[in-house]
Each structure stands twice: as structure tokens, then as C-alpha cells.
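Sample entry as discussed:
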Amino acid sequence: METQELIKALAADNRRSGMPMTVAWSGAIALAVALAAGVFFAFLGPRPDIASAMQTLRFPFKIVAAIVLAVSCLGALRSLSRPETEPRDLLPTLMVAPVLIALAVIAELFAVPASTWFPKLFGTNALVCLTFIPLIGIGPLALLLLALRHGAPSHPALAGAVAGLAAGGVAAAFYASHCTDDSPLFVAIWYTMAVVILSLAGGLVARRIINW
């Protein structure tokens, strides 16, 4: 039997012996969003001026960017749960959100005076951002890792890291509606650092718990 046929056979056997992947992913994603929403509304809630903030460009952009990150990483994660997936093929999908943020940063640097760059970059909520995005995202990450155990990823650590990115995107989308620092400069630094915390955690945990 050729290697690819063996991989497919093992993956099929894995799917037969456990929960169907479609059910596992649908349930995990729905519960992840619900759990993130619950933690967000329990501890933070939307900012008081959200109605007026929605009339600006920066505020909705950071929410959209976070949703794009979550959706693209969830799609990549489902692919990574299959053993025949080649990680390099997923790079274009995973780069969509970073490219959006990079373009927004470039636009911001041209749009505002250089004297305001550093104040906008550091903002006023950096510590809150680094605390609450991981806090909101840790539950969704756990659910996505559990869903991964019903698959057969050939690269468990990478799959776990992408699960962390997806959970971070979900968490950041909720947190962004609370945060009053709307500059892409702030988002590019602090949101990214918070999401990376979840990604690192996902990669480390996945190496230990995902075996097939």
C-alpha cells in the first residue's frame, strides 16, 4: 500500500471510531463563540460610545480584521485536522488577516502626523488587551483542541498553534468592541501579542494531547 493510501485509510479509521468531524467542528465552533461571548459580557461588555464609534473607519475595521483572522484560521484548522494536508498550501489563507493589518498600518502612518504615532501605538489599554484577549480565548482554544483530537493531524503542534490563532481571532473580535484604542498601530502590536500568547499555548498543548 502506498503512503498516501495508508494515510487516508488511517484517517478514515480514526473518523469511524470517534465523533464525525463535521459534528465535532460545528459543535466546537458554536460553543467557542458562545463561551467567548459569555466571558466577554460577564467581565467587559461593549464600550459606551459604540454607536458613534461604528460611524468611524478604524473601530469597525479592527472587528472585521479579527473576524477575518478567526474565519481564515478555522478553515485552515479543519484542513490541518486531515493527515494529507500540506501546511504550505494553507499559507495564503493564513496571510489574509496579517496583510489587512499591514495595509491598515501603512494607511495610518500616512493619515496621522508622525508625532502621534507612538501615543497611538501604546494607547491606554495595552495591559487590558494582553489580559482579556487570552482570558476570553482560552475556553474557545480548549474546545478547538478537543475537536482536533477527533481528526488526524500530521502536524499537531502547528494545528494547535493555528487553533490558538483562531481562538485569538474570536476573542479579539469581542474584545475590540470594548477597547477604545482604535488605531491600527495599537491593534498591530498589542492585539497581535495577545493572540500569539494563545497560539503558543495551543501549539504546546497540542503536542501533548493530540496523538493518532
